[in-house]
Amino acid sequence: MGIHILTVMHLLAVVIFLGNITVGIFWMHYAAKTKDFKFISQATKGIIKADKVFTLPSAALLLIAGLGLAMHQKMSIFGTGWILGSLIMFTISGFAFSAKLAPLQRKIYAYTSGEKADWNEFSKMLKRWDFWGLVALISPFLAFLMMILKFPA
After folding, report:
1. pLDDT in tens, 17-49
2. 140: helix, coil or strand?
3. In degrees, to the nearest 5, what angle opens at C-alpha 54 toward C-alphas 89 and 121?
4. With the CA atoms of 59, 62, 64 and 66 taken in that order, what torsion angle do they form, in degrees rounded to the nearest 10?
5. If 0-12 CB within 10 Å is exposed, 13-18 middle and 19+ buried, where does residue 123 land?
6. Residue 7 in this model has a pLDDT that exceeds 80
7. Cα(146)–Cα(89) distance, integer angstroms
8. Which pLDDT score is estimated for 110?
9. Over 28-95, what HEC string results?
10. How many angstroms separate the CA atoms of 129 and 32, rounded?
């Protein structure tokens, strides 16, 4: 596969990945502001679906195309600071998402879909979601900066 195709694939994946995880935070808080559990439930369901349709496939494409670019250019993946740093940040994001955020999203969806949802309990879940959401968001943005600035060298 040519370098230009890999570059386009990598950049497209970055845009979709970062865009979707950023918009997910917006939609969760937009829904929470309404204090309407039906709306929060639907927004959470949409976020979960968007993760399956956009976040997960773009994460895979981002990784495959990025590694393909490094190999095509004969760059050391573990010996190039900005590539290694970006992979570490990407791994942190993946852990935060798969181990913490995704299960919490499913829990929030189930809870807000039920008849006995309580605002105080939901608020506690939302605070945890915010924390892990920020970890899952900030770490790939740091990887993005590392890639652009080629830092550390």
Report:
1. 999 999 999 999 999 999 999 999 999 999 999
2. helix
3. 75
4. -150
5. exposed
6. yes
7. 10
8. 97
9. HHHHHHHCCHHHHHHHHHHHHHHHHHHHHHHHHHHHHHHHHHHHHCCCCCCCCHHHHHHHHHHHHHHH
10. 12
Q: Which amino acid is at 28?
A: M
As given in the structure block, the two tokens for residue 93 are: 């994001």
Q: Is the peptide bond before 103 cis (omega within 30 degrees of 0)?
A: no
**What type of residue sits at position 62?**
L
Tokens 């992979």 locate to 87
- 4 membership: H or E segment, kind and range: helix 3-34
Cβ atoms of 86 and 137 within 8 Å: the answer is no
pLDDT at 1: 74
